[in-house]
Amino acid sequence: MITVNNLTKTYGKFNALRNISLEINDGEFVAIIGESGSGKSTLLNIIGQIDFPSSGEIIVDGENTVGLDDKETAKLRNSTFGFVFQAFYLEPTYTVYRNVEIPLILKGMKRKDRKQRIEEVLNSVDMQDKLKNKASNLSGGEMQRVAIARAIANNPPIIIADEPCGNLDTKNGDVVMRLLRDLHEQGKTILMVTHSYEHSKWADRVIKLCDGKIVSDEKNN
Ligand SMILES: Nc1ncnc2c1ncn2[C@@H]1O[C@H](COP(=O)(O)OP(=O)(O)OP(=O)(O)O)[C@@H](O)[C@H]1O
Ligand SMILES: [Mg+2]
Question: Over the stretch 35-44, which tens digit does the pLDDT of each residue have?
Answer without folding.
Answer: 999 999 999 9
